[in-house]
Amino acid sequence: MAEVASTRTFPAAGRSVLADVRRFVEREASPHLSESFVQDLQLAVTEACANSIRHSGTAEIRVSIVPIGSCLEITVEDDGVYRMTLPVIEGEAQSHRGMYLMAAMVDDFSLRRGTERRTGTTVRLVKCAT
Amino acid sequence: MHVELLDGSGAVLRGELDLLVYDQVTAELAPLFEATGDVTVDVSELTFVDSSGIRLFVRLQRALGQRGRLILRAPTPHVASVFEVAGLRELGIVVEPAGG
User: Fold this and answer.
1) Domain extent at residue A82
2) Which of B1, B51, B52 to substitute to test the interface with A, most A CBs within 10 Å?
3) Which of A9, A10, A90, B57 is 20 to 30 A from B94 in CA distance terms?
4) Rounded mean pLDDT of chain B?
5) Which of B52, B78, B86 sits opposite A36 (nearest CB)?
């Protein structure tokens, strides 16, 4: 029997939204992953959501979590446009550390960019118990 | 997120440091950017840090330049692992373990 995804929608604004996302991830992931792996996942999901808030122009972010075997698959979706700049253009202020951190915290990671013609970016993260 | 500025050369950070509190924390730590010696930030009660927090520490270290070092004291194991992945030591920031 297929596992059912747990999904929550968050506004892409407000001072506590990223903390709210982390509490959601903690609640859903804790039964499946160790504390340190849950913290890794919280960081990866925070980076994905922060990228949506900073760059995409979306009004809301949807976070879905579904167990797949010994892993969790987390999907972060927005309705905006993904704006990728080269680090040399963006400058050393950020230098894409968020993207590197996100990739480093999970076992698998993929990104489907929202464009002007087809808005909506989807980040897929997979974190496994072992 | 709570910032306690100890004097002109130190602070304590408590709570979760992410993009949405970055501006507040940067403003509260502003005096440290003008420090004339080492700056020590106690991060033992920092329970979460993301790339915005890393950015803040890198900016602070670069502002200090030759005047002093940035010392991040007693991170939790997870925060320490984020510092490690982000390469803060390679950028010249001192990460001082708990009890060290």
Assistant:
1) 6-128
2) B51
3) A90
4) 95
5) B78
d(CA A56, CA A12): 10
CB under 8 Å to A128, separation ≥6 — which residues?
A70, A71, A72, A107
- CA atoms A33, B96, A103, B53: torsion sign: positive
Q: If you ran DSSP here, which 8-state letter would residue A2 be given? A: P
The predicted pLDDT at position B7 comes to 84
**A17 in a structural domain:** yes
pLDDT in tens, A65-91: 999 999 999 999 999 988 766 555 544
* Min distance B100 CA to chain A CA atoms (Å): 22
Question: By 3-state DSSP, what share of chain A in percent is helix, strand and coil, each rounded to 5?
Answer: 35, 25, 35
- C-alpha–C-alpha distance, residues B40 and B36, integer Å: 12
* Stated pTM of the model: 0.92
Q: Which of B19, B21, B50 sits opposite A43 (nearest CB)?
A: B50
Q: Does residue A114 fall inside a structural domain?
A: yes
Q: Could you give the number of structural domains in chain B?
A: 1
Q: Rounded to a whole number, what is the distance in Å from the CA of B78 to chain A's nearest CA?
A: 7
Domains of chain A: total: 1
Q: What is the CATH number of the domain that holds B88?
A: 3.30.750.24
Which residues constitute the domain of residue B88? 2-96
Whether A26 maps to a domain, the answer reads yes
Structural domain includes residue A77: yes
Q: Distance between alpha carbon A32 and the CA centroid of its chain, in Å?
A: 18
